[in-house]
From TrEMBL:
Keyword Membrane among record annotations: yes
GO CC, any one term: membrane
Protein's name in the database: Protein kinase domain-containing protein
PANTHER family for this protein: LEUCINE-RICH REPEAT RECEPTOR PROTEIN KINASE HPCA1, RECEPTOR-LIKE PROTEIN 55
Localization terms from the record: Membrane
GO MF annotation, one: ATP binding
Domain Protein kinase stretches: 1-139
Alphabetically ordered keywords of this record: Glycoprotein, Membrane, Repeat, Signal
Length: 183
């Protein structure tokens, strides 16, 4: 599966490029919306950084941004204790991550970066270029070849059938949409 992350900020035509943001009605998926965008209707490139930070937290927890009525950002901040191993996030973490010691190298740095991305104030969030550089450093620290194709999957299997990680539906009915390439 090849994931694609698009720039939501560029999905709308730029109105006033001098201001550096687009003013419009608030639209987007709850859980991913930048709080500043929600409050001001001003969409900036830092809005995309916020949304990407939420995606990063999803990767760590294997949970939707709003899981059982709880917002993933607030839940992770409430449980997190930097003095503990893996910041004390064991109960929130994706069980697949916990099973593999090699994937945990750099995890705390990854969580720190994600939390920088979801900072309430947009001007305190890193630029996306900085995020990319930090992720590259984390990958190097973990000793992972960034050019290697991924051989891991986080989907769950029941009875030999691939299940969607959020809905627990069989993925067989998605087969027309999702193309899995094998090399």
């Amino acid at each position: 599966l090849n994931a694609k992350v698009a720039n939501f900020g560029l999905s709308k035509p730029f109105g006033d490029t001098e201001k550096g943001y687009v003013t419009t009605q608030v639209k987007g998926t709850m859980g991913y919306l930048d709080p500043e965008y929600f409050m001001t209707n001003q969409l900036t490139e830092k809005s995309d950084v916020f949304s990407f930070g939420v995606v990063m937290l999803e990767m760590v927890s294997a949970r939707r941004p709003i899981h059982q009525g709880k917002y993933i950002v607030k839940e992770i901040k409430a449980v997190m204790d930097k003095a503990k191993d893996l910041y004390g996030l064991h109960e929130i973490m994706d069980p697949v991550l916990l099973q593999s010691a090699t994937t945990l190298v750099g995890l705390e740095m990854f969580v720190d970066l994600a939390l920088k991305c979801v900072n309430e104030a947009g001007n305190n969030r890193p630029a996306m270029g900085e995020v990319v550089k930090e992720i590259e450093e984390i990958i190097k620290l973990a000793g992972v070849n960034p050019n290697a194709e991924s051989a891991t999957q986080s989907e769950s299997y029941e009875g030999g059938q691939l299940r969607h990680p959020y809905t627990d539906d069989s993925l067989s009915h998605y087969s027309r949409v999702v193309q899995v390439s094998t090399a």
